[in-house]
Design a protein that fits this description.
The structure holds two protein chains of two kinds.
Chain A lengths: L3 E10 L2 E11 L4 E5 L6 H9 L6 E6 L2 E2 L10 E4 L11 H11 L4 H14 L15 H14 L4 E5 L7 H18 L2 E6 L2 H7 L2 E6 L2 E6 L1 H6 L4 H6 L6 E11 L2 E6 L2 E5 L11 E6 L4 E3 L5 E10 L3 E8 L2 E8 L9 E6 L5 E3 L19 H8 L1
Parallel strand pairs in A: 3-8, 3-9, 6-7, 7-8
Antiparallel strand pairs in A: 1-2, 1-4, 4-5, 9-10, 11-12, 11-14, 12-13, 14-20, 15-19, 16-17, 16-19, 17-18
Chain B lengths: L2 H33 L3 H4 L13 H6 L7 H31 L5 H10 L5 H14 L6 H26 L3 H8 L4 H30 L2 H6 L7 H7 L1 E2 L2 E2 L1 H24 L2 H5 L5
Antiparallel strand pairs in B: 1-2
Helix pairs in contact in B: 1-12, 4-7, 4-9, 5-7, 7-9, 8-9, 9-12, 11-12
Classes of the chains: A alpha+beta, B mainly alpha.
Chain lengths: ~375, ~280
């Protein structure tokens, strides 16, 4: 049982404000992912939760108890570092048992706990080795094992997979998700990789410039981004954006004038007026090649991934990305027509805020957990 | 076809290394060899490589009225204590300086090491006057303070560099594991710093062990060190070459062995594997 609550966390480094009032609630057994570009403050936020940095103001509460003045040792958390931070002079066993040794746990009990964690992570054969004799993936496992042995209330992960190669990253991602289920633990995970965030999180916290842009389930963020930043950050390849003029506003949506004709986007346009300029956002996977489509562009580049092909299109001087079937035969310099389903499109005001959709996506409220149990 | 090209730089390198080795080793080997030669052979006009070795110079060094023992003990005590203090304080200060977030930290570090750059000749007279007022002349404490004034900045600077190489993640991981700051330092940082500590200690010890200027100025009859004993053999009536070379050997050998030991300690060797 472990919950975490952050109330208006502010962190200053000298005159630079790195965290600008973060509010967050992490429920018991939740897998929360902090995601954002480099320098957005996600690692600082994690370190503040861990107690490695002190918050300049605001409250950090673990299980309802304020822990601001409590050191990292007493917060009962475990953290896996990006660099693994294994103690190089200690064997795997000593690395994993270091916290128990400090807590003066008897040797036999210590051994038992280390063996149990090693079994979960398939490290039993490696217990006598030094970290330098391990591969990257094995080191990562030891770092996780060290956290498990501690039996923490909350697990903290600081970009733990960023030093691994692509294949190992996918494997560890699945293992971490499985671990979350096996341990029934609350986990907070920092990454700049939105794929990791989407695939692992129950709840994603998107950060930018030290502020929270949006908190929600992966599907919520994908289908109902609160602003242009979140829309652009979540989803790969990036969402396409186009400045458009409003032609009409009605109860069924906002009418736009597009280069190839008009279209109605089903969003709430209460404070929108005819003549306003908005930004239309369409995900590359929601664009489709269509001989009768209202938009057209020249193919600048194709990226064939096998199953799908990304087409980079030049549409009125702007680059658009369209994700098409892997078997399409179009080549560079060809002119193609394309269209989109207005119900999948997004509209953003000039301040970046999105207009609410008239209908919520059926999956928007679904957390990863449901799909994950079936998937594994 | 590429073999000769690779072979050539290798040969040049080897030749240069051999020349350098000769340049450094010949005087030392000659000194050690000669310390075992009878007086007549040492000063023989045709230098002799083959001779019947004798320990007479060493025997006369460590016996009789003016034995080398007190000098040796003085040297060991003064160099040992000043090294110990320099390493302990240097280690703590270096850790602090490496980890603290401070504006102008680099300037502070440079200021500390810049005090080591002052020429001994420039500070020796003011220090003499200070020591006289403080009754530190002809005391162990006086010489220890004198060596510390040069060794401490050096130790801080060197240890800071070693600590900079050690990722702070390790201490932080230890603290998350439940260690206090001191426990993290004691169980994680210090064992990894052994190479740095040994290197710093040896270099500080060498400075104090070899020093002549401070010892000549600040020591008195009860605190004279080995370099002073060696200098006393250069008298107006003549030079006792045998004893002088034996003293030289006694001074150089421990340091040469220690130097060889330092070579083994490479900080990278131990920290490898800690972080990717």
């Amino acid at each position: 049982m472990a919950t975490l609550q952050l109330d208006n966390i502010i962190k200053d480094f000298g005159s630079t404000r790195v965290l600008k009032g973060i509010d967050l609630e992490v429920k018991d057994r939740e897998f929360v992912v902090f995601v954002g570009p480099s320098g957005c403050g996600k690692s600082t936020l994690l370190r503040t939760i861990a107690g490695l940095e002190s918050a300049s103001s605001g409250d950090i509460k673990i299980n309802g108890q304020r822990v601001n003045e409590i050191g990292p040792a007493e917060r009962g958390l475990a953290m896996v570092f990006q660099s693994y931070a294994l103690y190089p002079h200690m064997s795997v066993e000593d690395n994993m048992g270091f916290s128990l040794r400090l807590a003066k746990v008897p040797r036999a009990e210590r051994r038992e706990k280390i063996r149990a964690a090693a079994r979960i992570l398939q490290l039993e054969e490696l217990l006598d080795r030094k970290p330098r004799a391990l591969s990257g993936g094995q080191r990562q496992r030891v770092a996780i094992g060290r956290a498990i042995v501690r039996n923490p209330s909350i697990f903290l992960f600081d970009e733990p997979l960023s030093n691994l190669d692509a294949a190992l990253r996918v494997q560890m991602r699945i293992e971490l998700t499985r671990l979350h289920h096996e341990l029934n633990a609350t986990m907070i995970y920092v990454t700049h990789d939105q794929v990791e965030a989407m695939t692992m999180a129950d709840k994603i916290v998107v950060l930018q410039g030290g502020s929270v842009e949006q908190i929600g389930s992966p599907m919520e963020l994908y289908h109902h981004p609160r602003n242009r930043f979140v829309a652009g950050f979540i989803g790969s390849p990036k969402m396409n954006f186009l400045d458009v003029e409003v032609h009409g506003v009605g109860p069924t949506g906002v009418d736009l004038a597009l280069p190839g004709g008009a279209c109605r986007i089903p969003v709430v346009g209460d404070d929108i007026n005819v003549g306003d300029t908005l930004t239309l956002g369409i995900r590359p996977e929601h664009l489709k090649l269509d001989d009768h489509g209202s938009l057209e562009g020249d193919i600048v580049l194709t990226e064939r991934l096998g199953g799908v092909t990304s087409l980079y299109l030049d549409h009125l001087g702007k680059e658009w990305i369209l994700v098409a079937d892997g078997n399409i035969v179009h080549r560079v310099h060809e002119r193609v027509r394309f269209s989109f389903d207005p119900s999948c499109a997004h509209l953003f005001k000039s301040n970046g805020q999105s207009l609410d959709r008239l209908q919520r996506h059926p999956l928007a409220g679904v957390e990863c957990e449901g799909s994950r149990v079936n998937a594994i | 076809m590429t073999a000769p090209k690779r072979w050539l730089p290798f040969t040049v390198k080897t030749v240069l290394l051999v020349l350098l080795l000769l340049w450094t080793l010949v005087p030392i080997v000659w000194m050690v060899l000669s310390s075992f030669k009878p007086n007549s052979v040492i000063t023989a006009n045709t230098p002799r490589i083959f001779f019947t070795p004798t320990l007479e110079h060493y025997a006369s060094l460590f016996s009789g009225g003016n034995s080398l023992w007190p000098y040796l003990m003085n040297s060991l005590s003064i160099a040992g204590v000043s090294t110990l203090i320099a390493v302990v304080l240097g280690c703590m200060a270096g850790f602090g300086l490496s980890r603290i977030r401070l504006k102008g930290k680099k300037h502070l570090a440079f200021w500390i090491i810049s005090t080591r750059m002052a020429p001994i000749a420039a500070v020796i007279v003011p220090m003499y006057l200070l020591f006289r007022y403080l009754y530190l002349l002809d005391t162990y404490a006086g010489l220890i303070v004198a060596y510390l004034s040069f060794n401490l900045p050096f130790a801080i600077w060197l240890m800071t560099a070693f600590f900079d190489d050690l990722p702070p993640d390790l201490e932080e991981a230890a603290m998350i594991d439940g260690a206090t700051k001191f426990q993290a330092f004691r169980y994680v940082v210090l064992p990894l710093m052994t190479p740095g500590l040994v290197t710093t200690a040896i270099l500080c010890f060498i400075f104090a062990w070899n020093d002549y200027a401070f010892a000549q100025t600040f020591s008195g009859p009860s605190t004279q060190t080995i370099p002073i004993a060696a200098a006393q053999l250069l008298t107006q009536t003549g030079i006792d070459w045998g004893k002088l070379l034996a003293i030289g050997t006694v001074v150089v050998c421990p340091m040469a062995i220690a130097g060889l030991l330092v070579k083994r300690w490479m900080v990278q060797g131990l920290t490898l594997g800690a972080v990717k």
